Amino acid sequence: MPAPPSLPSRRDLVRTGILSALGLSLPNLLHAEQARANRRREKHCIFIYQYGGLSQLDSWDPKPHAPAELRGPYKPIATAVPGLRVGELMPQLARNADKFAVIRSMTHPVPVHDLANKMLLAGRRTPAGDDPAFGSVIAKLKPSVARVPDYVWLQKFGGGAAPPDPTYLTGGALGAAHAPLLVGNSHDDNLATPGYKVRAFEGVGEMPPARIAGRRKLLNELDGNNPLTPHRAKAFDLITGPAAQKAFDIEQEPLKVRERYGLNPLGQNLLLARRLVEAGVRLTSVVAWTGLKPREKFMSIETWDMHGNAGVDIFGDGWNGLGFALPRCDQAVAALIEDLSDRGLLDDTLVMLIGEFGRTPRISKGATGVNGRDHWPNCYSAMLAGAGVRGGAVYGASDSTAAYVKDDPVSLEDFSATLYTALGVDPATRLSPDGFTRPVSTGEPISALLESRG
To answer: Which domain of life is it from (predicted)?
Structure first.
């Protein structure tokens, strides 16, 4: 039986003139194809950095049977998932454990903040100097179809833990067009400040619409009346249209909602991140700085770097202690996950909570003589939720003291490949300047954590 004739391709239709006979043009056909593509459910991402490195033993991977000098004072508590237990300072996340997955076997060899952060941002153990951050890659490959930025960064890295160059704010090799819009340039520039306004749009209202239109026309003329590039068109839309300015106005949220997330930098940044997802922003990076207690003097936004060197016991309730920071993080991240779920957004929004490494199993004394844990990249934990991640899953295992990986090690490459896959990007996609040398990620996605996409 002969095979049925194949349908003509678009190229065949153009070559034979059938498009014109049907009253169609190639631009119209391309526009229709793009519209169909845009109607597919778009994925979004909120990447939360526990800058400084969270202790895995006191959070996602408690070891209640370890010696006292290792296990710390916190007891494990049950979660919504039978058999999964977490540290007692995370009761709200514990109640939502069916909505997220935990990786207990993250590993790499570098115990130095700035380099490890560069590695995490690039998703590579040996990143090149101009390797773009994860968010810039998503902005390049999956730009937003809305009139909002593709990529936003909430709360700038600060202190010695910052990456050794500002690649994460420049777009790296992908260029400034794929750099994030930065909100929160310093510790006293944050959304928890009463009356805070995002300054990215300041001055727009002072420029008459006719003047803006004139500048747009002039640029067209200088370009020989060629159509605006997509990036320039979006830039004009951002400064003249209300969509982005409205999305960034967190004071439109009721006080009750703001309090649900927590009236601190992390809580308010995560609330804004939810607003940005609703507006169409593709990826929002959030530094998990939980702020200061009343009357505390500013030290650093490296909340999770809990050596005890700042004079705050890792098990204490100062700005650099788990007793203060982890409950705030628990409240904010749980509120985000619940809010996204209640609004029907979690299925299409990937939420990540991870630091550049973990902390040593053995409790030490910091420079000021109080308890701390030092840097430990050999084995640490991460949390993933939404966008097809299997809720309630636990992947990998550590040894009896959470010092080394026992089962299923996860490299930064594997982690990034998993994130890209969840967001609809094939990790094998070539994105290097020459177009073929390097894939987006050289890792393997963790299929056990991802729902079937058949």
So the answer is: Bacteria
